[in-house]
Amino acid sequence: MIIPAKDESERIATTVKAALELPGADLVVVVDDGSADGTGQAARAAGARVVRHSRNRGKGAAMESGAEAVRLLDEGRDQPRHLLFLDADLAETARDAAPLVEPVRAGEADMTIAVFTSTVKLGGHGFVIRLSRDGIRRATGWVATAPLNGQRCLTRAAFEAGRPLAAGFGVETALTIDLLRQGFRVREVEVPLTHRATGTDWRSQLHRARQFRDVARALAVRDPAVVARAGRLLGRRP
């Protein structure tokens, strides 16, 4: 499994240890995406293989680096590993991600997306979720419950079909659209995972603004009308 991480030294060790409890888990790759704290060291001490970016390159790049590391470690295996992506802040709940893997392992889905059964109160207004969900629906006809959820399991073939991944926080939206358009089977799966809620301070608002920007950019490549819809979501004329 692959865990992109930036400045997650407080939770990464717990997340890695919990992920290693998953059935059949024999490899956890943490991509330290330019952290300024001890994320990489904590992950390695907890049992993960660590790939480090010298500077922050964004989530999409971290996912690609992690997948490449797994590919290199898979050399000599009869079958490539499926790729399970988890967020770094899942902590103890990472051990409950097994339902995401089961449909892919059984050949019933090419990509699964987590729908959390437990919700946390968010500090935002849902602009980014609505933009992503609407963009996916318009592009493919599929209505996603959790379009931005980063907990996903993919076959290696599905992952390769989605490359190059969209930049930054647009990666989940773009990956869903690109795979559905190519005929891959995508399924949402309820899982009892939770992660840290995004707050309401200025850093959190900046994070949401970056999310909105990246999702809008990913959609703009796939749907020329996205800029007008993004303006409406923000309550202003396009």
UniProtKB/TrEMBL annotation:
It is an enzyme of class 2 (transferase). Its EC number is 2.4.1.266. InterPro entries: Glyco_trans_2-like, Glycosyltransferase_2, Nucleotide-diphossugar_trans. This is Glucosyl-3-phosphoglycerate synthase. Keywords: Glycosyltransferase, Magnesium, Transferase. Its cofactor is Mn(2+); Mg(2+). SUPFAM superfamilies: Nucleotide-diphospho-sugar transferases. It comes from the Bacteria. Pfam families: Glycos_transf_2 (PF00535). Residues 2-118 form the Glycosyltransferase 2-like domain. Belongs to the glycosyltransferase 2 family. It catalyses: (2R)-3-phosphoglycerate + UDP-alpha-D-glucose = (2R)-2-O-(alpha-D-glucopyranosyl)-3-phospho-glycerate + UDP + H(+); an NDP-alpha-D-glucose + (2R)-3-phosphoglycerate = (2R)-2-O-(alpha-D-glucopyranosyl)-3-phospho-glycerate + a ribonucleoside 5'-diphosphate + H(+). It comes from Actinomadura fulvescens.
